[in-house]
Fold this sequence. Notes:
By secondary structure, this protein is mostly helical. The protein has five helices and two strands; from the N terminus they run ββααααα. The chain has helices at about 20-45, 55-70, 75-100, 105-135, 135-160, and strands at about 10, 15. The longest helix has 28 residues, at about 75-100.
Amino acid sequence: MPLAADPRRVGGVCVRRRHRHRPRAVRLTASLAFSANAALGIPSARWRGARPFAGLWLAGTGIGSIVITNIENQAAFCVAVALWGFSFWAGVPGVFTLLAQRSANPSDRAGDAQAVMAFGRVIGPAVGGLMIEAGSLRMLGWIAGLTVFIAAITLAAVERRTTPISPLE
């Protein structure tokens, strides 16, 4: 069973009533993993310069979704959560730059991208909650990861097959 699929398990640590120290270890592991996620997001979001291969960065978040919900190793769980944060915050500015470079109306495309992200923030928890309630966290990770991979492939195709245009053209 993957670590994230069992509410009593996080990062390979099983919480049992007879082991009172384990819940603290679970909370500490989860806390450190998500702190690393946020900490790695800072340098990736502040990264100056071009961010080519926006689809590749986005694919990293898809891999994170799959690994986090299917892994059974504490160290791998922590690394996957941390890298997920880095690739997300490295990818989002790359996506916005790509959309702006390939559009005659960059501000409109940025607004469209934000609207799609907002739609995902509405639909994702609704569908995800239903899947978790049905007991299928692994499937949720695969569906989320594959959805992000489709977006990553689309971005890679846009980046490869279109040329940057000037907003004045």
